[in-house]
Amino acid sequence: MTEIKIGLISELKNKKKYLNFISFKKIKIKIENLNNYNAKIICAIIPYTYEKISKLTAEKREGILKNIAKLFKFYEVNDIIYERKLKELFTEQKFPGDFKVVMGDKIFRRLIPDTIKKIMKTRKMTNLNTRLGISDNSMSFITEYLIKKLCYDSKQMKIYTRNIKKANTIEEKILEETGLPLQIFSSSDKYFDKSDIFIDVDENKIKFKDALIDKIEYELEIPGYDIDTADLAECLSLSPNEIKIKYLSGDREIFSF
What is the DSSP letter of 25? Predict the structure, then answer.
């Protein structure tokens, strides 16, 4: 089996060591083995603390990423993940080259049907009294997948989107296949939605009347680094059955399975 090589971008943890770096080209590489998953973490440590990086110009941040990209190419990295705080700082900068930057969103979306079904069972919600809303401006294949997976688990399903034409096409297809009529609305109407469960595909959030799930955490850890473990799980192509999952609202645990 081919070893997975994941590039992790990290900040300098020790402020005193910052003085030992002379320029952006002094990116330190640290290699960690994830033996249980036949994977290797190639950690690129930026020669500045988070506070210092946050004050850099966009041009200088791009320079940092270019130097990291050269190193990741040398180490034959497959996917790239950021430490949590750095994800926010580098959202405006596209990572150079053909690397795949993993943000955990695909695994979040893939888990939505199972998540909702488990929570409905836990809360004793039935398809006879559950109203479901889905918001997706582009009407991506993810939403069509969610509709097909969840159409029998709700008495009413509302779709909010900017792409009304595509939504109507999907609605006709779903009606023919399942007999379930969808209600299509403009995306601006989603703020008035009163569904029991609301899935925001664009923002990767699941809202219940008394809870909001905006993050998932696998029981994975790379000691010394603060990462969104859904990013790592996606890189490793893990399935929900392989490891325990916690569902969070910010840092507060809502459910775990």
Answer: T
* Domains of the chain, first to last: 4-101 (no CATH), 102-257 (3.40.50)
Judge contact between 4 and 37, C-beta under 8 A. Answer: yes
pLDDT for res 117? 86
For 157-180, what is each residue's pLDDT tens digit? 999 999 999 999 999 988 888 888
Q: How many CA atoms lie within 13 A of 193 on its CB side?
A: 29
DSSP state of 83: B
Asked whether 70 and 7 are in contact (CB, 8 A), the reply is no
173: left (phi over 0), alpha (psi -120 to 50) or beta: alpha
CB 176 within 8 A of CB 235: no
Reported as type and span, the H/E element at residue 3 is none
Rounded Cα distance, 67 and 21, in Å: 14
212 is written with which tokens? 């909001």
Tokens for 223?
């000691």
Q: Quick one: how far is CA 164 from the chain centroid? A: 26
What are the tens digits of pLDDT across the range 203-230? 999 998 778 999 899 989 888 899 999 9
> Can you tell me which residue has the tokens 């930057």?
101
